[in-house]
Amino acid sequence: ECDGTPRHCRLWIHEVLRVIGDRLTDNQDRMWMLTKVRELSKSVFNVGFDEIMKHLDLDGDGKVQTLEELRNLVFGDMMAEPAAPNRAYAECMDIAALQAKVEAHLESYNQMSNKRMDLVCFLYMLE
């Protein structure tokens, strides 16, 4: 799935969050990372960070400038059917729908397996 520079930049940001951000241990370092990602979005991808991330703006201020807002940027293949070939690695725009889908996949797994996984789905787990 390819829909231009904004999506590719969001995908890059998501990967930075997963590879680097998940290893940071305090909010000061995470905020430094957010500042750098904002700067690099403009200098490398030539896109405005707030423009391409506006769907994540939780407080309506026109900016994505908190870690809480940024947490909702999720890419993955979880929205596809489990056995589907060539599952699309796509942005999950609706966290509630993502949670419902993951819970359905889990229930399907538990029905097929003799070793149940009783997991609780929440945002940190979905990330």
Radius of gyration computed on alpha carbons: 16 Å
User: Structural class of the secondary elements?
Assistant: mainly alpha
Largest sheet: 2 strands, antiparallel
SSE succession = HHHHEEHH
User: How are strands sequenced across the largest beta sheet?
Assistant: 1-2
Question: What is the terminal separation in angstroms?
Answer: 20 Å
Specify the overall morphology: globular
Question: In what range is the share of β-strand residues?
Answer: under 5%
What is the average of the pLDDT values?
89
Which regions contain 5 or more consecutive residues with pLDDT less than 50? Answer: none
- The count of helical stretches stands at 6
Number of strands: 2
- Helical content stands at 40-55%
Keywords:
single chain; mainly alpha; 6 helices; globular
TL;DR?
With 127 residues, the protein is mainly alpha-helical. It is 50% helix and 3% strand.
Describe this structure in words.
The chain is mainly α and 127 residues long. It contains six helices and two strands, in the order H-H-H-H-E-E-H-H. It has helices spanning 5-19, 27-45, 49-52, 67-70, 95-112, 123-126, and strands at residues 75-76, 90-91. The protein has a two-stranded antiparallel ribbon with strand order 1-2. The mean pLDDT is 89.
